[in-house]
Amino acid sequence: QVHLVESGGGLVQAGGSLRLSCAASGRTSSAYAMAWFRQAPGKEREFVAGIGGGGAEILYADSVKGRFTITRDVARKTVSLEMSSLKPEDTAVYYCASRSALYSGPSNYTPSYAYWGQGTQVTVSS
């Protein structure tokens, strides 16, 4: 079992920045792809960014390209999401997710991920 804990959410003004972190523990592996998803009230959970096992492959949703950056610290078993030029439409609960297949690539398909964190709220005011 893999346990994921997100941190770093909060309230920020439009145009501002936030950094989210996800700490993995348990039977985690640097060879698992990990990702960030988000879910706004009344909307389905959507893919934001993903990073493959080993960190070589990175995928972003079109809506965040050029504004968000996903990185991975293998030694610390963390995945971070640096968010800049935030917009009110970025407001959502952000979830960290992990795949369970070794050397898997990132996927924007929610069922591809076996493990999920509890989420952290990001609110962007206009």
Blueprint of the fold:
Elements: E1 2-7, E2 10-13, E3 18-26, E4 34-39, E5 46-51, E6 58-60, E7 68-73, E8 78-83, E9 92-98, E10 115-116, E11 120-125
Parallel strand pairs: 2-11
Antiparallel strand pairs: 1-3, 3-8, 4-5, 4-9, 5-6, 7-8, 9-10, 9-11
What percent of residues adopt helix (DSSP H or I)? under 10%
Order of helices and strands: EEEEEEEEEEE
Counting H and I runs of at least 4 residues, what is the number of helices? 0
Low-confidence stretches: none
- Spatial shape: globular
Rg, alpha carbons: 13 Å
Largest sheet, in brief, is:
7 strands, mixed
What portion of the residues fall into strands of 2 or more residues?
over 45%
Detailed description of the structure:
The chain is an all-beta fold. Strand 4 and strand 5 (46-51) form a beta hairpin. It is globular. 36% of the residues are buried. Strands 2, 4, 5, 6, 9, 10 and 11 form a 7-stranded mixed β-sheet that branches. It has a 4-stranded antiparallel β-sheet with strand order 1-3-8-7, with no helix packed on it. The mean pLDDT is 95. It has strands at residues 2-7, 10-13, 18-26, 34-39, 46-51, 58-60, 68-73, 78-83, 92-98, 115-116, 120-125.
Task: Give a short synopsis of this structure.
By secondary structure, the protein is mostly beta strands. It is built from no helices and 11 strands. It is 0% helix and 48% strand.
